[in-house]
Fold this protein.
Amino acid sequence: MIAGVSFQLATEKDVADIHRLEEASFPAPWRREFFLSELDASGRFNLVARREERLIGYLFAMWFFDEMHVNKIAVDESERRRGIAQALMDRCIEFAIANAVRTISLEVRKSNHGAQAFYKQLEFMATYRRPRYYPDGEDAVVMTKVL
Ligand SMILES: CC(C)(COP(=O)(O)OP(=O)(O)OC[C@H]1O[C@@H](n2cnc3c(N)ncnc32)[C@H](O)[C@@H]1OP(=O)(O)O)[C@@H](O)C(=O)NCCC(=O)NCCS
């Protein structure tokens, strides 16, 4: 529990706020339509965090049989280091365990040391690198957690 913060499954009416935070958080943001199509797709676990009415974080993940992939996680800069991302991931991991998922994976920019530290304390391991994964040519580090 984080005082004043609630967590819900993302819906279409969240997309404008999600997209605003996406643009503030990533150098190559997803387009709004991409979030909408993720909300329509099957095998997804998409969450938002709100403080009162204000959207302060989101997590978008997909799962298929025993594998889960976290596509996106971001927290508003003014709300970081308060455990919001941790709470989003805790819920994702809880969902994964309830659905017999065995591994959770994700990509993170090689230069994004803050996010890598975040994943490491959740016991994700850097498993390999995807060269030039991002549109600007930066490598991705693939990190995996075995449940
Ligand atoms: C990465 C991100 C989601 C973390 O969100 P957050 O809500 O600040 O994370 P939490 O408060 O839950 O962090 C939990 C723990 O993870 C670690 N951690 C989180 N951010 C960290 C950072 N920038 N540097 C080092 N460790 C960090 C710490 O151990 C932290 O515990 P502490 O604050 O008690 O030391 C957030 O920084 C963000 O939105 N960044 C921009 C988008 C992004 O890079 N997303 C990931 C893409 S792969």
Q: What stands out?
A: Strands lie at 5-9, 44-51, 54-64, 67-75, 103-109, 125-130, 140-146. The first helix runs from residue 15 to 25. Residues 19 and 34 are 10 Å apart (CA to CA). The domain at 5-105 is CATH 3.40.630.30 (Aminopeptidase).
